[in-house]
Amino acid sequence: MRPIQKSKKLDDVCYDIRGPVLEKARQMEEEGHKIIKLNIGNLATFGFDAPDEIVQDMIRNMSNASGYTDSKGMFAPRKAIMQYSQEKKIAGVTIDDIYLGNGASELIVMSMNALLNSGDEVLVPSPDYPLWTAAVSLSGGRPVHYVCDEQADWFPDINDIKSKINANTRAIVVINPNNPTGALYPVELLQQIVELARQHQLIIFADEIYDKVLYDGAKHTSMASLADDVLFITFNGLSKNYRACGYRAGWMIVSGEKRHAKDYIEGLNMLASMRLCANAPGQYAIQTALGGYQSIDDLVGPGGRLLRQRDLAHKLLTEIPGVTCVKPKSALYMFPRLDPKMYPIADDQDFAYQLLAEESVLIVQGTGFNCPTTDHFRVVFLPNSDDLTVAIGRIAHFLEGYRRRVGIAA
To answer: Which residues form the Aminotransferase class I/classII large domain (predicted)?
Structure first.
């Protein structure tokens, strides 16, 4: 029989967070190996549970969750999100500007599907959260990666962004707080990006899913609060701030210059209707989450578990010869760099594969985040301190062996 091929739309799509190295990890687990997973920010796996009041509200409302909701979502959670947008100083947001989704991921894909035609370009950070690059490609567009500069705390390079804007550019994606680097962008930098969007009539897609996972007293500024003459699409949800990844409760806010975007917004409404609605049980969690006690503050503040583990992971990683890492100010990840002179890695996916095979530690290689070089990898610092110490100790042992194999003395 003739082979059945996948769509050519997938040729430029990768999502190595759940890629071939993970398949090897599953095979090893089936064979009885215990894998320490530093590859994905799935908080529940590491004992970070959703707040009890959110769980209880979902249970109490489950009998009301059998039917379809409004295609944009229920009124009460959207009203809570509207009030949250006011707290974030995003002006002019109404109930109709808010879309609930099965996590922010569904809405990211929807926002690209509604916008892009063949040949349209979207500026996406490098490194990025790879769903953004994939969503642009799947929607028929062309992702164009702009540089985030490790020497400047992983901040976007404004001059590089400028150089990549052309007549085909439709939008710019800003991931702040940033995954995978943990960077948090200052207001002045955000204002520069907004000014570029203003000059070139670009849409700003602001991924702010980690806006409460902040360390050392850092403050987050929502990009959509900085202007009302640029179109902003802002994404957020319960997965990270409220440790509710599996609830798939996310939202998208349309704000700013909406008058000239009526046709695009009609496209968003069409796609929202086509999927009927987001899952109803997850919608019931949103109002309680946003209006309740913000327990994330305890985890990231002085003495908090996430803060302790960030500090421990950074210390242990940077003690390894040839490993440097910008200390994250936000999110759940580190993006360490391996000195290419000590670690001449030609294929970083193979590097991650060998680390898994030899040490039973699962990471994601840097190129999986559209990093242009093979000298980075991402780790999550969610495992408890003991497991983190073991995992990074195994990474150190593997790298020691790597240096010996290539003839580099520590």
So the answer is: 34-395
Identify the CA nearest to 237 among candidates 100, 121, 126.
Answer: 100
Amino acid present at 351: F
Whether 399 has a pLDDT exceeding 60, the answer reads yes
Q: Per-residue DSSP letters for 216-239? A: TT-----GGGS-SSSEEEEEEEST
Q: Which amino acid is at 402?
A: Y
Beta strand segments in 257-376, E = 323-324, 333-334, 337-338, 361-362, 364-365
Instruction: Give the whole-angstrom CA distance, residue 201 versus residue 179.
Output: 26
0.85 exceeded by pTM: yes
CB 221 within 8 A of CB 251: no
Where do runs of H (alpha helix) occur along 88-123? 103-113
d(CA 100, CA 235) in angstroms, rounded, equals 10
Which segments of 245-293 does DSSP mark as H helices, in order? 262-274, 280-291
What own/partner pairs with CB < 8 Å and gap ≥ 24 does 113-120 have?
A: 113/138, 113/139, 113/267, 113/271, 114/264, 114/267, 114/268, 114/270, 114/271, 115/139, 115/141, 115/170, 115/171, 115/203, 115/264, 115/267, 116/140, 116/141, 116/170, 117/141, 119/168, 120/168, 120/170
What's the pLDDT tens digit per position in 258-311? 999 999 999 999 999 999 999 999 999 999 999 999 999 999 999 999 999 999
Do 222 and 90 meet the contact criterion of CB atoms below 8 Å apart? yes
Residue owning tokens 């035609």: 117
Question: So what's the pLDDT on residue 374?
Answer: 95
Asked if 395 contacts 355 with a C-beta cutoff of 8 angstroms, the reply is yes
Cα 20 from Cα 343, distance rounded (Å): 22
Q: What does pLDDT average to over the chain?
A: 94
CA distance 36 to 313: 14
Tokens of 55: 């769980």
Q: What is the pLDDT of residue 173?
A: 98
Cβ atoms of residues 275 and 68 within 8 Å: no
Residues in contact with 164: Cβ distance below 8 Å, sequence separation at least 6, in sequence order: 123, 144, 146
Q: Is residue 378 within a helix (H) or strand (E), and if so which, with residue range?
A: strand 377-380
